[in-house]
Amino acid sequence: MMKKRWAFLLLSVMLVVLSACGNNANNTPNEGATNNGNNGNQAEKQAKITLFQSKVEIAEALENLVAKYKEETGNEVEVWGSAGDAYITQLQTKLAANEGPTIFSVQPGAEAEKFATYYHDMSNEPYAKYISPNMALEIDGKIVGMPIGVEGFGLVYNKALYDPATVKDTSSLVKVLEQFKADGINGLSLSQEAYFLIGHIINTPFALQEDPVAFIEKLNKGEVKLSEVAEFQEFAQVMDAIRANSVNPMEITYDTQMGDLATGKTAIVHQGNWSYGMLADYDEIEIGMAPLPIAGNDKLAVDIPAGWVINNTASQEQIKAANAFIDWLYTSDTGKNTIVNDFGFIPAVTTIEPTELDPLSQEVFNASQAGNTIPWALNYFPQGIIINDLAPLTSEFFLNASMTPEQFLQKLEEVWAKAAK
Amino acid sequence: MSKAKNGVVSTLIVILALLFLSPIYIMLVNSFKTRAELYENVLALPASFSFEYYAGAIKKMNFLTVFGNSMYVTVATVIFVIVLASMTAWMLVRRDNAMSKIIFFSFVATMLIPFQTLMMPLMQVMDWIRTYLHLPVLNTHEGLIFMNIGFHAGIAVFLYHGFIKSIPIALEEAAILDGCSTFGVFWRIVFPLLKSITVTVAILDVIASWNDYLLPSLVLSDKGLRTIQLSTFYFFGEFTIVWNQAMAGLTLTIIPVVIFYSLAQKYIIKGIAAGAVK
Amino acid sequence: MSKKYGNLWYLLFTMPLFLIFLIVVVIPFLIGIYYSFINWNGIPSSPKIFVGLDNYTTLFQDQRFIDSAWNTVKFTVFALISVNLLGLIFALIVTAGFKTSNVARTLLFMPNLIGGLILGYIWRFIFTDGFKQIGATTGIDSIFFNWLLDPNYALLALVIVFTWQMAGYTMVIYIAGIQGISDEVMEAAKVDGANLWHRMTKIIFPLLMPSFTICLFLTLSGAFKIYDVNLSLTNGGPIHSTELFAMNIFNEIFGYGNYGLGQAKAIVFFVIVAIVTITQVIITKRREVQM
């Protein structure tokens, strides 16, 4: 008797375990397929969609935006969250499990190529027409992504300490750095994070090549000797001058780098317009952004950091809803307002006039309006190379004073060929 | 030992323990500082103790909801793990045949696999279960609990297995002679003897499930389902960390487990005292 | 004995957990083995090309992988010793019956409650800013400098952080073991005139053998699999000198997008670790039996 009762209890435990997830079986996946009721109506009820993106800084603003979207149109967008460096891993794993988001963001170049089979072709969508010239995310001549905005980087400097008008080439930059050292000021500061250590600054010599993408392909195959390319020689000279005259970048984090700039201990940092937010807590100083004057370069590196793409494996209804949302984002007052004021993005579409940009973003916007820019060639580097190969090599260069600039370039070729395999 | 000596040593132990906790000091002081203050000196005390970053973190994380979600997932996971793992381990010890050895070995061996190499195939298996068995294992708390049980099974079985071996069989044999069923023997005789190891398993499992980030981040997508760990993502940009709110958020996430631990550890001692039978 | 519990009961008791475990851990692991024989970038729609054992031959020529294996071994050996030594000392102290034992027990366990990446970030403040300040004020800058910039010290820093986190964890298990030693045995030993050292080596340690088995295994598997702290404290640097196994595999899979090669590395890693830890378990288990 007792035996049976226990057996029954045990069995129920098992059943609970196995069906623990079964109780709400009918209301989950593909909400989209079910709730697209009244078709053909003007104020059409769209399917619920999901949105996944990598910029943590705008996460909260985005959540507020979709709340307003629901108020205005009655349609639902679910915003997923992810810590910055875990984004791609999560995206990839979720796509593998057919749990992909409807809209997601990708960086142009290698990352965009990686997920290329997932993009809905936006070429004929009405909002594709709003994209500013050359700012679309394109694959094989098709527009597949809406630019989230424009970003730029270069030498971010303290106007009280540095005057870019006097520095137009590598040799004068080196001289200025030597002078800063004599004055006890950290001249040009990099920081230990992979992109801020090497990823961004090495963009300039690549972007200055006639055809950066073709150049990178040749380098991948090991057909280029970097030490024979003038822009790279000068780049290595600048790196050498930083090592000789500035605080070791490996001792500096992004936080201390910007703190040193804000407190006048550092004159110049190699950074982008996004770094302005880091200065918020400090007493205000006048800062500007200037080109890295390698080989006489007089242009900022400006490009779109990422684009919104629509997942073509989503249901038809969801793709339709995603199109409606993107259109609303770039045409409604709420959407436009949010992009500029809450996201703090420099718009890359013709429908939005920027207002009240911060000083760094203003300079980037001016440069892009004037066409006075070089592209982000780094987006076309082999996948993972900046974090896995270039940053370790650069840290070796900064920690090991006996490595010459020539050896640095030579090692650069070696690790590049390995990573590109 | 004299009373005075005991007092001196006791104080010394606490001082050493506090020194051991200096990283927690860093966490606490920096949850009160602005970015500029932190830049000036990481180790110094804050200029003022205002709880604005705590308030900010609570609001951003949607603390009450995510706290409830974490509680649900953790409590359910731990209960299932304790019930199932203790039963499994007991049977494996008491029937020590080839099958038991294989099962035990696979539980233990898979504890060595780094999760990062399992996550992609795991998600594919879950997708398969959802598509063909129509069980919503993805994007539900129950699905996460199910996977947690699988991942925490190894260590729990391992711990129970080691402990059960030291329990004399005599009591069980007597109970069987008295006409107790196998189920009765386990729950009435054996399980109460396992109290102290159960509390240990519970402590370790609560922490594992409370602190987990990677698995929940893959399984749970919707905002309303987020656990306490998932909701801290707001503070971690690709390059920038909102230090004050991140530290405040961290403090908030560990307080519940600290309370749980200081309550639970009493039972380890009590359990042992009660289980002096052996 | 085994006759007493029938086959049906056997299955009822073991299968629920084992089935879940099979679905969640074993099957994905087997799929992972399959992936180690193919060339694939990890995107579902991309082609999967069967390459046989190519991935396995490639990885043995991968110097960085071999280096990371060696780093992992060094790290694990140091971590194993320091975690268990400290955990055992903690456990002995807090069970010795001092007034503050309960407080100390909670305090010593607290590091274990801080999970994941942020732990590494906090320690980074200590090894960079903290050590610099101590070095500057005390003048002992041969010890107190930025440890994370020196390959050997950076690995040591990882050991310290791991120890800090895990010592409390093993302490809990050692406490359970120590509490299990009956007071009568200890009293009897005292009456017989055994001094502290004798009580330790002749009674406590042998009776703690099951706890040793468990703690050594847990530390070993934890140390071999370490990832979060590795990422946030040193990120493998300086110059790959602290890139451990799990990080190397993760970078291969998600950094370079070589899914098959990464899985092959994981399999090789698993086999090595399994051999080491199972040897360890067999050795310590044998000692338990002798006792």
Automatic annotation (TrEMBL), chain A:
GO terms for cellular component: ATP-binding cassette (ABC) transporter complex, substrate-binding subunit-containing. GO terms for molecular function: maltose binding. Keywords: Signal, Transport. It comes from the Bacteria. Gene3D superfamilies: Periplasmic binding protein-like II. InterPro entries: SBP. Pfam families: SBP_bac_8. Residues 1-25 form the signal peptide. One of its GO terms (biological process) is maltodextrin transmembrane transport. PANTHER family: MALTOSE-BINDING PERIPLASMIC PROTEIN, MALTOSE_MALTODEXTRIN-BINDING PERIPLASMIC PROTEIN. Belongs to the bacterial solute-binding protein 1 family. This is ABC transporter substrate-binding protein. It comes from Paenibacillus montaniterrae.
TrEMBL record, chain B:
PROSITE patterns: ABC_TM1. It comes from the Bacteria. Keywords: Cell membrane, Membrane, Transmembrane, Transmembrane helix, Transport. Residues 67-264 form the ABC transmembrane type-1 domain. InterPro entries: MetI-like, MetI-like_sf. GO terms for biological process: transmembrane transport. It is a multi-pass membrane protein. Belongs to the binding-protein-dependent transport system permease family. PANTHER family: ABC TRANSPORTER PERMEASE PROTEIN MG189-RELATED, ABC TRANSPORTER PERMEASE PROTEIN MG189-RELATED-RELATED. This is Sugar ABC transporter permease. The lineage of its organism: Bacteria, Bacillati, Bacillota, Bacilli, Bacillales.
From TrEMBL, chain C:
GO terms for cellular component: plasma membrane. GO terms for biological process: transmembrane transport. Its main location: membrane. The chain crosses the membrane at residues 7-37, 75-95, 107-126, 153-176, 203-224, 266-283. Keywords: Cell membrane, Membrane, Transmembrane, Transmembrane helix, Transport. Residues 69-280 form the ABC transmembrane type-1 domain. It is a multi-pass membrane protein. It holds the Pfam family BPD_transp_1. Gene3D superfamilies: MetI-like. SUPFAM superfamilies: MetI-like. It is found in: Cell membrane. Belongs to the binding-protein-dependent transport system permease family. This is ABC transporter permease. It comes from Paenibacillus montaniterrae.
